[in-house]
Design a protein that fits this description.
- The chain has 6 helices and 9 strands.
- It has 183 residues and is an alpha/beta fold.
- The protein has a single domain, classed as Rossmann fold.
- Strands 5-6-4-3-7-8-9 form a 7-stranded mixed sheet, with helices on both faces.
- Helix 1 crosses helix 3.
- The mean pLDDT is 96.
- Bound molecules: adenosine monophosphate.
- The site of adenosine monophosphate has 17 residues, from strand 2, strand 7 and helix 5.
Length: 183
């Protein structure tokens, strides 16, 4: 397993752009498009994730709709693993199972194909998304993975908002790793 050097961490962190008051007043939106189009930062990040997860004996990477697809699909290919999309309700065409989770106002729902992780019971799955805030989305994703008969081994985020208690709550269910922690 590798850790990022302070210089590498700075390059990744500095490549993420803060957009104030998006999508609504009071939110600081972490824009990862400026990480993705920065080949040095994107390369450092993906190499780091590859080095970290190559010894985890994973069977699948599951990415959360939609930015988790970008990192998850790239990482799955690097690790020679299959990729599974966990999607917002109504997008997947085959039989699904779903989980509802609370938002600040109201609820949302995510789904996965019932057979997404194959026949083998206990397939080892890494769940990935760009960011954890309250942890509601990732918690629902980890629950979905486990409900299929597979096992969520870890949830990985590029950015963890550690001033919220999402990471702590999710740690009750699974291991959690954030490349960058924002206090
Ligand atoms: P949560 O369920 O509260 O942990 O929210 C995580 C999901 O919402 C992730 O899919 C993120 O992409 C998105 N999200 C929440 N807060 C932010 C933020 N400040 N900047 C960018 N994305 C966010």
């Amino acid at each position: 397993m590798t850790t990022l050097s302070n210089t590498e961490k700075q390059i990744v962190e500095n490549s993420i752009r803060d957009i104030k008051d998006f999508p609504k007043s009071g939110i600081v939106f972490k824009d990862i498009t400026t990480l993705l189009n920065n080949k040095e930062a994107y390369g450092i990040l993906m190499n780091h994730l590859y080095q970290r997860y190559k010894e985890y004996h994973l069977d699948y990477i599951a990415g959360i709709d939609a930015r988790g697809f970008i990192f998850g699909a790239a990482l799955a290919q690097m690790l020679s693993l299959g990729f599974v999309p966990i999607r917002k309700k109504g997008k997947l065409p085959y039989t699904t199972i779903s989980e509802t989770y609370a938002l600040e106002y109201g609820t949302d729902e995510i789904e996965v194909h019932i057979d997404a992780f194959g026949e083998k019971k206990g397939a080892r799955v890494l769940v990935i998304d760009d960011l954890i805030a309250t942890g509601g989305t990732a918690n629902a994703a980890a629950t979905l993975v486990n409900r299929t008969g597979a096992r969520c081994i870890e949830c990985c985020f590029i950015i963890g908002l550690s001033f919220l208690d999402g990471i702590e709550k999710l740690q009750e269910k699974t291991d959690v790793y954030s490349v960058i922690e924002v206090n």
